[in-house]
Amino acid sequence: MSEPKRVHPISMFIDFISDAVSMIKNFIIPFFVLIFVNSNSSIRFYAFIILGVLLLWKAVSTVLEWRRFTYRMEDDEFRVESGVITKKKKYISLERIQTVNTSEGIFQRIFGLVRVQIETAGGTDGPEVSLTAITKAEAEQLKQSIFNRKKSLQQDEMAGETGDGPHDHLAAQKPVEEEINVSYRMGVPELLLAATTSSGIGVIISGCLAIYTQIDEILPLDGFVKQFSFLSHASVEIYAILIFLAVLIAWILSVGVTALQYANFAAKRKGNDIIITRGLIERHQMTIPLARIQAVKIKENILREPFGFATVMLVSAGGSITEKETSSVLFPLIRKKKINELLSRFTDQYHLTPEAELKKVPKRSLKRYLISFGFVPLLVGVILSVRFPPWGYLALIPLPIALFFGYLAYKQSGYTIKDPLIQLTTRGIGKTTGIVLRKRMQNYTVTQSYFQKKGRVASIHTFVKSSALLDSFGVHHLEEKDAARVFDWYSYEKKQSS
What is the pTM for the complete model shown? Predict the structure, then answer.
């Protein structure tokens, strides 16, 4: 592919809609005030004129950007040229390309197209290159061309390092081992169970509160509030029913959002790549090379844990800060007893050690977990009880719940080392288990407060590279000797080399 190519013309419409929505979202508050709240007709007229001019300029610039945007592969580089006023050239070495991901939005699916996102190891604020709309055949050809050429360059580099003797020539002609192919598909029952037991309800509620605080600043809601003034004299039962209905609506919205995210979810291993596809309205496909996997994260929320279900995620290097967490989900919902079977087939090196084999925190750490979980609920409960009796006493209800989760954290926190892996388990409300290869650990940290030192315990943490950031795993209030043992294991290779 040496001739410059353009993306499909429909990309002009897609980019215009996306940019227009983003622009309106950024200026929605001032325009809403000027057009709908302001009573001065002249100001409203000029506001419409300004909005029309901005949209017209965006439409013209979108057409010009499409005309100037070209891409091609040449001299082992992926080259992109763009820019309306200032011409920009971006040359990306094929060796730097980590993944080529595809997605299908509504408009792409109508025309049988896909969006292609090319990511490099150094990407931080988004994909290195995004091709808004190209044909599926062209996307597949592009992906194959990039990775075939990458493989060829890597083989040439290895041949250069080992030499070009007869032995190397025979090794190069050795048949390639058969590729590993394994797949996992999420059925409708699993999708419904995953949606109904997701923890997205907290996100929905916090989002509604954020919207309310923003609207309350620009709209006079006093009249609306007066319509419900009768609730100030309502009984406790009425308030309980209203709270239940609000939580029920938030839960239904959470179920819908989760179902849309994970509909048609499938994970497939092909050779040394894991390919994940998901989505109903917008279909996403993500490719994760095995070499990019830094750790495996297993999450169990309070709804799934009692039934033996968990979510398995891959922490991978590369990518961008803007990637959502769901893009790295390997198994959205899976029985814990099946994790090892599938995980070993998908990743080769990672496996989950049974909880009974973990080295747990000492018994004297129980009070530390209870204090750390119960201190804030106790303080808030006491203050509200003193200031607002007798209703303030209700604020003490969360205290035993917090102490219960503190006890669970004490019982379940621990670690185990199965060379070359370390497994760390901890919990807040939900339980999180991290499985990390020693060579993927960016660092290992031991922290010890004054009170921990007196109790001969310490907290340990390790960090692995995740996109442009670091993901962490740790265990609190371990025995000092266990923290030192992990340090010795982590630094073992360095001691051998010295």
Answer: 0.74
